[in-house]
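All the exercises in this workshop are built on plain-text protein records. Sequence and backbone structure share a record, each on its own labelled line. The structure tokens are whole numbers drawn from a learned vocabulary of backbone shapes. The record below serves as our worked example for the rest of this section.
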Amino acid sequence: MTPVHSTRKRRSSTGRARPFFWEEAARDWQPKQAEGQRPQLSEYIARSLRALRDGVGREAGTVASMRTLHRVFLADEGVDRLPDSYVAEHYALTLFGLHQHTAAEPVHRTGVGLGTACLRLRQSKALTQAAVERRLTAAATAQDLHELAQHLQRLIPLLAQADIGLDYTRLLWELARWDGPDRNRTLRAWGLQYTDPAIPLPRTGEDDQDEHGAGAGQELAPYWTTFDPGRGDSGAELAALRSGTGREAGTVPAMWAFHRTRMTFELRDKGALTRDLAAEHAALTLFARHQQTHARPMHVAGNSPGTAAGLLAKKAAADGDGKSASAALHRRFGLLLTSADSDELVMHLRSLIPLLNQAGIGLDYDLLRNALRTWDNRRRPDAAPFFRQHWDRDFHTAATS
């Protein structure tokens, strides 16, 4: 299938690359502003917008009046189905037609992602926060491109009413990639854009941004330190966090509100998967499983995985489970200590956490997150040995004291 970027190389008879239609519409507006004329779209653009609205709900390639507005190249030879990029452009065009209709100025705004647009919609108070999040979540959980387009057809008019623009070139790329492996990056970008606290972060150097995406001391308190088991919605929150188990960080809409990792605007906007975000995601899912059914917080400062496992071994011995149970815990903990990377560490923690949950033994999730983000970091070759040494010592101290 023809990739989207190939359309950017297509040349017109004038010898210059032809922009997408929404880019043409924005450029059509600018000369009139420069000339001091009353801003309005040309007759060609206005007529084309009517054609785009005629395509809403229609199958790509079946609306004759839209064909000249496509920029995705179609091969002359017959194909079994339209390229995914052509179908994506059809949806982008029809959505742009809905959005630009009755708007006082161009709605194609370079650099404004869907998450940012929804954040501005929430801030406009045109809808409640819950209403905005329902619509964004519905789009983010669409199973395929066609379902996504249907949800966007309900969301775009709300952006139009609030005079909020959108980068349609970016949206086209996101639509074209929706049914492929790049969907996760799109989801992460939408979530990070929507939850952007809009507090400028200092640039602390390229190394820090590559590593964590934010300067030291810039993060908000993590969810597990502020969790209150007595809140009426705590059960629903924990269920939302458990839904992220085994999923890539930043791709679970139900978890977006609980992330506290800070990063620069540039990293948020492009949906970067930083070590901090991945570590926080894993810690949140583990905490949610650990906290389940408990009326007191399971985040206990100072309780390393070694301490927690040692207390578990001591409890097993006190309960009369015998040497076999203690030996099994030693083996399980030994496997955890020898984890080759953070993914393997998370896997072993997932088998340990239910045991800690049953025994009511807490864990320091601040320490755990720090271990997860540095365990296999090549810039921190001393990190894993440090944690192994200290956790092993903690285990034996807790088990024998």
Remarks:
- The longest helix spans residues 342-359.
- DSSP finds 18 helices and no strands in the chain.
